[in-house]
Design a protein that fits this description.
Elements (H helix, E strand, L loop, with lengths): L1 E4 L4 E3 L2 E3 L3 E4 L3 E4 L14 H4 L5 E6 L8 H10 L2 E5 L1 H13 L4 E6 L1
Parallel strand pairs: 6-7, 6-8
Antiparallel strand pairs: 1-2, 2-3, 4-5, 4-8
Length: about 110
């Protein structure tokens, strides 16, 4: 479960992260290697597609920032949902859906 999110850190369980991260309901996968939200493409998410999530939540930081339209289409072509929201909302949504047993992943920017 994501315990807290601020502009400086994301706390999951007892561990604190001070950089954007990628996680699933099972584990924190790694630091996020993608660039700015406006520059994201499906290539940035290839390793997540291999995990076969039904939904990916993209937390874009303090405010909601939409990714390129082509990225949304790339997710749709794969049959994977993409929800984009600010990181605070993304953390809350992730926790609720994870508690329901959904197969999901999240990319959370600070």
């Amino acid at each position: 479960m994501i315990r807290s999110v601020s502009a400086e850190q994301i706390r999951i369980g007892e561990k604190t992260y001070r950089e954007p991260i990628v996680l699933t309901t099972e584990t924190v996968l790694d630091a996020w290697r993608g660039g700015a939200v406006a520059d994201l493409s499906d290539v940035d998410f290839e390793f997540l597609f291999e995990k076969k999530p039904e939904l990916v939540i993209l937390g874009t930081g303090a405010s909601n920032e939409f990714p390129p339209r082509e990225l949304v289409f790339a997710f749709a072509r794969r049959g994977i949902g993409l929800e984009v929201m600010d990181t605070q909302a993304a953390a809350r949504t992730f926790n609720v859906l994870a508690s329901e047993g959904r197969r999901l992943a999240a990319v959370l920017y600070l």
